[in-house]
User: What shape does this take?
Amino acid sequence: MRTVSDSQGTTWICLELPEVPADQVDAASKMAPDTVAIECNSGAHRVIALVSPGWDDDMDDAKLNAVIREFLVSP
Assistant: This one.
């Protein structure tokens, strides 16, 4: 689990999901074989993102915020 604040001061809580959601399996299959899904929730918004394992230790706040923004605007 990680928390991160974005440039607007919104705090996001991110947790790794036990499996990639069914609607993102196709996208995950085009990524590295060990891709994991994370859910980031701000209370007002919810994002499911696909990332590399170890994301909680390997990503700095700027990178995690970039991933949240990327998946927030994706259909």
The mean pLDDT is 94.
